[in-house]
Inverse folding.
């Protein structure tokens, strides 16, 4: 559901609060379902409940002046075009596609841009099936929020998997395809088959892994249990393994509560029975999981259920970033404290990691160099494969929350990758 007025718990809030929430929801996407409302949110803790913060737009996600502009227009029952124009101005100012997603990541085939794909790292191609560009419920932090608000010129979507197969034939270094969105598991299984089966039939020599990025295990576990085509979905997962390929569900689990319901536990068990591996990742989000106890509990729950802790991300520099951001210094402390509380099986998680323009950069810790504190950084993944594993130092800054807010330590005028990126962007 997208209508605040249809949710009894929201209808009970004061009118001025409802108006502010409605104003923010015009700018940022809002969608929620009964499972999230009834099973995950503790309404006795609202507005501080983490799942409520994770799914419901809040006034603090935009500047006060921006909220007021839209709220005034709604109160005055202004024409729809006037409201939309104000909303679009705000959306365009929220850095809708960070880290070169449009300028650097979109590949070409025979001179034509493939807007439904991204190819940032040599081994991995992202594919955005057109029918999977929505979600069962929306996360307020989502860095792909432009997919959901009608900014068609900023939307990634592909309608034909034949182009994907041809692109992979010409790029044999690609080993992994990540089917993403939105959430591909909002698609019916028949539609998902039309994406996956051509990859299996092509028998591409380089392709070994199919990944599916999804929040369905958290927001709609019935997709794997009682939906009409749930059994067919699990059969499709089995077919991937039968063809000798690895299937990984890249599951977004932001809080332990998402893994605690009987429906979620059953769904995870059924997915694992197909031979698929569940790898769990989420950003570090202020007001939701910025607590080492929460992360330690989350990782323990994942391992107990047979899933693999994979990434703790730093919240990206887009959308309502100021509302959710955690400074890197605090992120390092939270990650380290959480890791010290768990066993080695839980320490497969990597982080805190920034998916920035040059690549995935992890902050390994704070060290001293030349008598000054520095962040120790490492390139986990890079646009240039030669960058992978490279370590480098940045000056310690307790307020910095993203890579481009850091400066090189010592006398270096810039980080090692910056000149290459400038040259790439000029092409």
């Amino acid at each position: 559901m997208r209508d605040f007025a249809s949710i009894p718990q929201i209808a009970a809030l004061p009118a001025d609060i409802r108006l502010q929430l409605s104003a923010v929801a015009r700018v940022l996407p809002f969608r929620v379902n009964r499972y999230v409302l009834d099973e995950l949110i503790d309404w006795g803790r609202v507005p501080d409940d983490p799942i409520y913060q994770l799914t419901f737009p809040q006034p603090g996600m935009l500047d006060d002046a921006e909220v007021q502009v839209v709220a005034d227009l709604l109160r005055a029952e202004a024409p729809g075009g006037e409201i939309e124009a104000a909303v679009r101005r705000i959306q365009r100012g929220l850095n809708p596609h960070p880290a070169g997603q449009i300028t650097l990541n979109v590949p070409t085939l025979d001179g034509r841009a493939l807007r439904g794909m991204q190819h940032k790292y040599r081994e991995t191609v992202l594919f955005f099936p057109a029918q999977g560009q929505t979600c069962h419920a929306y996360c307020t932090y989502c860095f792909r929020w432009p997919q959901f608000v009608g900014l068609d010129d900023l939307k990634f979507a592909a309608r034909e998997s034949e182009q994907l197969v041809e692109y992979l034939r010409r790029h044999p270094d690609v080993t992994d395809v990540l089917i993403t969105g939105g959430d591909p598991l909002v698609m019916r299984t028949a539609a998902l088959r039309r994406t996956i089966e051509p990859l299996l039939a092509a028998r591409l020599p380089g392709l070994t892994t199919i990944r599916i990025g999804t929040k369905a295990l958290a927001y709609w576990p019935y997709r794997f249990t009682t939906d009409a085509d749930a059994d067919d979905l699990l059969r499709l997962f089995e077919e991937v393994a039968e063809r000798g390929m690895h299937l990984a569900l890249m599951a977004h689990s932001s809080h332990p509560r998402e893994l605690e319901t009987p429906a979620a536990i059953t769904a995870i068990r059924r997915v694992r029975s197909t031979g698929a591996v569940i790898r769990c990742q989420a950003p570090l989000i202020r007001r939701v999981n910025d607590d080492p106890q929460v992360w330690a509990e989350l990782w323990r729950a994942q391992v107990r259920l047979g899933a693999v802790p994979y990434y703790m991300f730093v919240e990206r520099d887009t959308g309502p970033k100021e509302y959710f951001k955690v400074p890197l210094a605090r992120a390092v402390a939270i990650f380290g404290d959480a890791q010290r509380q768990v066993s080695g099986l839980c320490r497969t998680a990597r982080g805190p990691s920034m998916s920035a323009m040059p690549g995935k950069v992890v902050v390994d810790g704070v060290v001293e160099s030349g008598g000054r504190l520095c962040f120790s950084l490492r390139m986990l993944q890079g646009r240039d494969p030669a960058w992978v594993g490279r370590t480098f130092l940045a000056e310690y800054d307790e307020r910095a929350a993203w890579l481009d807010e850091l400066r090189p330590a010592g006398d270096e005028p810039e980080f090692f990758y910056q000149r290459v990126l400038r040259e790439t962007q000029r092409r």
Observations:
- The chain has a mean pLDDT of 90.
- The CA atoms of residues 31 and 131 lie 17 Å apart.
- The longest strand covers residues 359-369.
- DSSP finds 15 helices and 13 strands in the chain.
